[in-house]
Description:
Blueprint (H helix, E strand, L loop, with lengths): L1 E4 L3 H13 L4 E4 L2 H10 L4 E5 L7 H10 L8 E5 L4 H9 L4 E4 L4 H21 L3 E3 L2 E4 L4 E4 L2 E2 L4 H12 L5 E2 H9 L8 H14 L6 E4 L3 E4 L6
Parallel strand pairs: 1-2, 1-3, 3-4, 4-5
Antiparallel strand pairs: 6-7, 7-8, 8-9, 10-12, 11-12
Helix pairs in contact: 1-5, 6-7, 6-8
The structure holds calcium ion (CA).
Calcium ion (CA) binds next to loops.
Amino acid sequence: MIYLLEDEGGIRNFVLYALNNSGFEAEGFETPSAFYKAMEERLPDLLLLDIMLPEEDGISILKKLRGAGETRRLPIILLTAKSTEFDKVTGLDSGADDYITKPFGAMELISRIKALLRRSRDGDAAAEELTAGGITLVPSRHEVSCGGAPVALTLKEYELLFTLLRERGKVFSREQLLSRIWGYDFKGESRTVDVHIRTLRSKLGACGDVIETVRGVGYRIGGGALD
Length: 227
Ligand code: CA
């Protein structure tokens, strides 16, 4: 699934048409708010992101996505009318994987997308499994298991577990977890973290104890002793 955030209807239709013709499943969004809503439901394999948008500009969106656990490595190509060197540097510094300047042709777009997806799959294949106390998390497949039995998690629960596992031993405050995982669309309060940790522990069953509460600080998954 490829997401396209582009406010201009003509370009949106052109890109979606080109993607569908090349066999890609794709969904287009006119506004950042519609895009964020879709991100809550399902993460894409790749994002095509316009820079000049209503509500919020693409660079700011890019930074938020790069700051949040689950979208940190989402393949992103910026689509923009801006073509000066400065803008290219700004875009790539913000964490875009590639950059394509309007107007562009369907062939160029598709070949850039295929190249980026290939790079990203190679990277995923190299990404190691994360384990702790009977839990195994496979980032490339978004799979979690406890003692070999699959565990079905929501996106936020998965992100929480991934964040804690990836920096094992580190204590995360509720605020840190909020900004990493809920950062770009967060409207609630830090109790949200506690609620999600509770359901995460319960879904992990026998493995739930691996998530430690550090009183007055936050949460962590402990060091090697758990293996
Ligand atoms: Ca635009």
